[in-house]
Amino acid sequence: MQALVDAIREQGEILPGGILKVDGLVNHQLLPHLTREMGETFARHFAPLNPNKIVTIEVSGIAPAIATAMVLGVPMVYARKKKPVTMKEPAFTAQSVSRTKGGVVDLYVSSEFLGADDRVVVIDDFLASGGTLRALAGMIDVSGAQLLGIGCVVEKQFESGREKLADLNVPIHTLANIIRMSEAAGIEVEAGR
Ligand SMILES: O=P(O)(O)OC[C@H]1O[C@H](OP(=O)(O)OP(=O)(O)O)[C@H](O)[C@@H]1O
Ligand SMILES: O=c1[nH]c(=O)c2nc[nH]c2[nH]1
């Protein structure tokens, strides 16, 4: 997605620990025209798989996920990181490591909104080590739903998440790919794959 690649070139910043800051378009401020194009692009890509649900993780996955779900005309469910009293049991749960806040986070999805009838495409903001998507894929599996594909806005190729998730045997589509980044060389970014 060229507009996303251009925006990352313009606004992206490298932070310690191999973190790419794109708060101006993905993780704090959202640009509606870019978010809409993300949704349209994911929807075009995954529509042939005929999903009936989009699943993501709060918080930064919600915007691209709802943009995709709106185009496909299907519900979007997000894994919550704190279980509210309203959540109906049983809930599927898993743990992942937050890359931007540190520490282990719990993920919860109620069986009220995910189950054996669901054909799921997962949409998230970042594919880095793949740990978060691995945790979510485990919950989807336990629920009995079928995982059809994974879409991420930004892939950090140098963290090899795509390779680590290969055993899931589902297509992974990303919109921008960070090949490498360093203070010396800057951010090397190309269209996703
Ligand atoms: O492939 P991984 O190494 O697991 O990294 C990707 C995950 O890291 C971020 O979550 P984080 O909890 O940092 O942020 P968020 O609250 O902004 O969604 C991001 O939203 C992805 O879910
Ligand atoms: O804002 C972010 N920048 C990153 O580099 C990253 N990697 C995983 N999750 C991330 N979130």
From TrEMBL:
Organism superkingdom: Bacteria
Xref: CDD domains: PRTases_typeI (cd06223)
Residues reported to bind 5-phospho-alpha-D-ribose 1-diphosphate: A128, S129, G130, G131, T132
Binding site for xanthine: L20, N27, K156
Domain called Phosphoribosyltransferase: residue spans: 44-157
Catalytic activity: XMP + diphosphate = xanthine + 5-phospho-alpha-D-ribose 1-diphosphate
Biological process, per Gene Ontology: purine ribonucleoside salvage; xanthine metabolic process; XMP salvage
Protein's UniProt keywords contain Transmembrane helix: yes
CC per GO annotation: cytoplasm
Pathway: Purine metabolism; XMP biosynthesis via salvage pathway; XMP from xanthine: step 1/1
Catalytic class of the enzyme: transferase
Alphabetized NCBIfam families for the sequence: PRK09219.1, XPRTase
Subunit organization: Homodimer.
Protein name, entry field: Xanthine phosphoribosyltransferase
Chain's gene name: xpt
